[in-house]
Amino acid sequence: MEDLIPLGKTDIRISPVGLGTWQWGDRAMWSYGTTHTDRDIHEAFQRSVAGGINFFDTAEVYGKGRSEVLLGECLRETVPAGSGVPVVVATKFAPWPLRVRRGALVQALRASLTRLGLDRVDLYQIHFPFSVVPVAVWANALADAMEAGLTRSVGVSNYSAAQMRQAHEVLSRRGIPLASNQVEYHLLNRKVERNGVLQSCRELGVTLIAYSPLAKGLLTGKYTPQNRPPGMRKYTIGSGRLSSIQPLLGLMREVGQAHGGKSPAQVALNWLTCKSAVPIPGAKNAHQAQENAAATGWRLHAAEIAALDSGISS
To answer: Theoretical Cys-Cys bridge with 277: which of 23, 208, 252, 265, CB 3.0 to 4.6 Å?
Structure first.
């Protein structure tokens, strides 16, 4: 794993690849057969930490809090108090339509802290901007959480460039930096390169956290027109879509071979780090966690990045 990098303009240092825990709390997928156990999750966390990953992202809505509970258990089991291991924990507030009071954010954060078993988190984020409450109100609520000592830094998620700039301005007036904006970003979805989000992050010193960095498995190379994703995704991702990305996957395999046999998934994650983004792939077991960790410690060449850039986009 490469050296830790700064989270925005804060003194918090994170690994260049983190781990997203959405799947940890999701039970809906289990209707198609159990894909992991709690023990698998604990092993994924342990292997991630051993591989140099120290940044873990969750949210109150993941499994209705189950993901936060599991992450808290992992922290107590693998990273005992006083161990000195710099694990960075991020979670999110969901601004549901019925949450109209500014104080709802701090109240929700306290509930998340209870589930995590922590006195404070390292990063607290607004999960999405679709709310009857203005951006400025929730930005001030984030500042309230900082001043209450419940979080070390604050961020947003799924914010446009304009919304992010507004939140940044409100927080700046209270002397607090906007640390991050978490958005979907991967080789099959590069909208942030065109809509101003990536450029605004660079200008403001905001870390872009990339969720779904493997396009929900499409960039791993395991799915083909003959081997479509399981469950409901089989019906939402057609064979035409899978056929169209095969040339890109072939290029990713070639690039990976040039770097000692890296997988398409590792190439996809490394491409994001080369774009100054912090990808947060999921991991439901130790093997997946180990694969994620091996996406760093090396770097794509400029010509390889350019070739991948021209491969496919949306």
So the answer is: 208
